[in-house]
């Protein structure tokens, strides 16, 4: 089928370079990737450096309050920010991550696992950076099955033909 | 009466769009999908989704905090 809602030869194309692997940074690429695919765009996501961890079979994503002065968590009707001095204490990031995950569930926001599944289902082209696999000693057996391995040239070939290229 | 109804109440961006797109595939060409949502962002998003994909937003309304969209499967 080549209608405008399922892609095809004349479909618009988008690539996203995914470089970050924390819970908060995982959202923009997966939200845009899945939504674009739902709107008939052929999407390629290239996972490199810390973003590559988002392709592990088992995810336990965390956020960090450190160096994140704009982060405001709603709490008892107010908004709380976290001074770096406190954010550096053991357990603070893990507590903030739990809070964030509870908030995500409560507000009907998709989990990253759910969005990743949607990306796979809608045939998003997922490329894992081979160099990062080697650098961080990731095993293909630890990663999801629906990926292709590639490098900068693989990405560039797609990016050169794409209508939209994003770096996140 | 719509061919299919999607209850996307309580879901946030981008889930109503993703689920709607998925269900739209089960609606025959020319048929309609009714979507119910509570996400205020869905008002602008369903309009944009329909304009971009070429499906027709036949109706949209809001009542008691629930947004209702009727989408005709034309693309």
Task: Give a brief outline of the structure.
The complex is a heterodimer of chains A (168) and B (75). With 168 residues, chain A is an alpha/beta fold.
Strand content of chain B: 25-35%
Shape of chain A: globular
Largest sheet of chain A: 5 strands, parallel
Helix count of chain B equals: 2
Topology:
The complex is a heterodimer of chains A (168) and B (75).
Chain A: E1 13-18, H1 23-38, E2 42-47, E3 73-75, E4 78-80, H2 84-87, H3 92-106, H4 112-121, E5 125-129, H5 130-135, E6 148-150, H6 152-159, E7 164-167
Chain B: E1 4-8, H1 15-24, E2 32-37, H2 42-53, E3 56-63, E4 66-72
Parallel strand pairs in B: 1-2
Antiparallel strand pairs in B: 2-4, 3-4
List its salient traits.
heterodimer; A: 168 residues; alpha/beta; Hypothetical Protein Ychn, Chain: A; five-stranded parallel beta sheet; two-stranded antiparallel sheet; 6 helices; 7 strands; 35% helix; 18% strand; globular; disordered N terminus; B: 75 residues; alpha+beta; four-stranded mixed beta sheet
What does the model show?
- The complex is a heterodimer of chains A (168) and B (75).
- Chain A is an alpha/beta fold.
- Chain A has 6 helices and 7 strands.
- Chain A is globular.
- Residues 1-5 of chain A have low confidence and may be disordered.
- Chain A is 35% helix and 18% strand.
- In chain A, strand 3 (73-75) and strand 4 form a beta hairpin.
- Chain A has a domain at 13-64 and 112-167: Hypothetical Protein Ychn, Chain: A, CATH 3.40.1260.
- In chain A, 29% of the residues are buried.
- In chain A, strands 6-5-2-1-7 form a 5-stranded parallel β-sheet, sandwiched between helices. In chain A, strands 3-4 form a two-stranded antiparallel ribbon.
- In chain B, strands 1-2-4-3 form a 4-stranded mixed β-sheet, covered by helices on one side.
- Chain B is built from 2 helices and 4 strands; from the N terminus they run E-H-E-H-E-E.
- The model of chain B has no long low-confidence stretch (mean pLDDT 96).
- Chain B has helices at 15-24, 42-53; strands at 4-8, 32-37, 56-63, 66-72.
- Chain B has a domain at 1-28.
- Chain B has 75 residues and is of the alpha+beta class.
- In chain B, strand 1, helix 1 (15-24) and strand 2 (32-37) form a beta-alpha-beta unit.
- The chains are: A alpha/beta (168), B alpha+beta (75).
- At the A-B interface, helix 1 and helix 4 of A face helix 1 and helix 2 of B.
